[in-house]
Amino acid sequence: MGQMKNPSRREEDQAVAKGRMIKTSPQKLNLVAQMIRGKSVERAKNELEFSRKRVAREVLTVLESAIANAENNHDLDIDSLVVEEAFVGKNLVMKRFRPRARGRVGRIKKPFAEITIKLREKETA
Question: Which domains does the chain have, with CATH numbers?
C-alpha cells in the first residue's frame, strides 16, 4: 500500500526556481532581489545584466531557470511572465577563526544564502 501523492502547492499559472548555496549574505542578496520584484521578466533580466552587484549574475541564472521551467514544464507564455515573488533565505554559515593579539581569537562568519523566484503569467485584459 503506497501513500497518496501530495497535491502540488503551486498554482497553474506559476513557475518556480530556487538557487541554493549562493556565497553571499542574505542581506546583500535581498538588495538584488528587491530590484526585480513585481517587474516583467524582460525588464528584470535587463536590470540584472547591467547591475554592478556581483550576486546579480547568480540571480540571473536562477531567473533564467524559472523562465525555462515556465516554458517547458508549465507551457506558459514567456512574453507575459512577471516576477511575482523573489524572496531570500539563510543557508549555511561557515565559521572561521583568525588569531588576534594576546592569544585571543577573532571569529569570521562566511554566510551563504538561497533565493526563490516565482513567476506568474499576467492576465491580458
Answer: 14-121 (3.90.470.10)
